[in-house]
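PROTEIN DESIGN WORKSHEET
SECTION A - STRUCTURE
LENGTH: 274
TOKENS:
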């Protein structure tokens, strides 16, 4: 057994390294706790200073990751590892990982561009990433998180966002709600316009300025189309959209304005008698 185990050497190693291992573990535990507190303090400080909600989670995650890297380098130094060598090894490892994760680094760079140029911010209603529409909940290091009208959570990579057209629906503060209503050729255009304007005037979400207008659109095969674009605050877009469709239909019904269905007139000719 003595050939396999040198108890004296094993005891010496345990005596030499046990304090370092215990110290490293305590350093990691206390260090991670302190880093968590620092990250929370930094996040609260940014919130108190009313920093953009889009930037706060992004910077918080960078602070957290950076401090953890410094902690790991410090723990390596406790075991006698030369920090300069460790940093060199870590840099080479980072470079190798960078080549392997080029796509992820691209998403990170895109996230930085989004925060710098601000095509949208948290709480904006946007259409991004090839047609994904929703309210921006969070701009993360690699992704943008959207919340849709039906409460779905959509995670769009930042690289996909910057490589596609970005439509910020609510970015101007107020926006026009595109509406189209159809009436039959027998109905009065002036009366239908009056009804639509009356409903718009009663809608609690529509702004008085710019004033709402109703114009005649293209003539269809079975109907005349009336177009309107009332303006509202960005956060009231969907309420305005649904309110107008519901109440214009009820007002048309109450005033005998018909909403036509596609129809075709068929003329039958009798063949000429011989």
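SECTION B - SEQUENCE
RESIDUE ASSIGNMENT:
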């Amino acid at each position: 057994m003595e050939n396999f185990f040198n108890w004296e050497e094993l005891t010496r190693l345990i005596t030499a390294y046990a304090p370092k291992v215990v110290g490293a573990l305590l350093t990691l535990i206390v260090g991670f706790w302190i880093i968590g507190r620092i990250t929370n303090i930094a996040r609260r400080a940014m919130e108190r200073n009313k920093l953009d909600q889009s930037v706060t989670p992004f910077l918080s995650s960078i602070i957290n990751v950076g401090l953890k890297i410094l902690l790991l380098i410090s723990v390596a130094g406790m075991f006698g590892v030369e920090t300069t060598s460790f940093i060199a090894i870590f840099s080479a490892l980072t470079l190798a990982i960078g080549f392997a994760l080029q796509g992820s680094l691209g998403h990170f760079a895109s996230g930085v561009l989004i925060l710098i140029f601000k095509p949208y911010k948290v709480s904006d209603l946007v259409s991004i990433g090839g047609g994904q529409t929703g309210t921006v909940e969070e701009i993360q290091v690699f992704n943008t998180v959207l919340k849709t009208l039906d409460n779905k959570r959509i995670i769009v990579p930042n690289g996909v966002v910057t490589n596609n057209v970005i439509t910020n629906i609510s970015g101007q503060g107020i926006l026009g709600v595109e509406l189209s209503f159809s009436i039959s050729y027998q109905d009065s255009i002036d009366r239908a316009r009056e009804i639509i304007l009356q409903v718009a005037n009663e809608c609690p979400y529509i702004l008085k300025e710019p004033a709402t207008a109703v114009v005649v659109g293209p003539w269809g095969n079975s109907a005349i189309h009336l177009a309107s674009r009332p303006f509202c605050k960005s956060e009231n877009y969907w309420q305005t959209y649904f309110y107008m469709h519901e109440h214009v239909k009820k007002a048309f019904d109450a005033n005998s304005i018909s909403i036509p269905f596609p129809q075709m007139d068929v003329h039958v000719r009798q063949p000429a008698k011989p």
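SECTION C - NOTES
The first strand starts at residue 125 and ends at 128.
The helical segments are 7-48, 56-78, 83-100, 102-117, 158-162, 189-202, 237-254.
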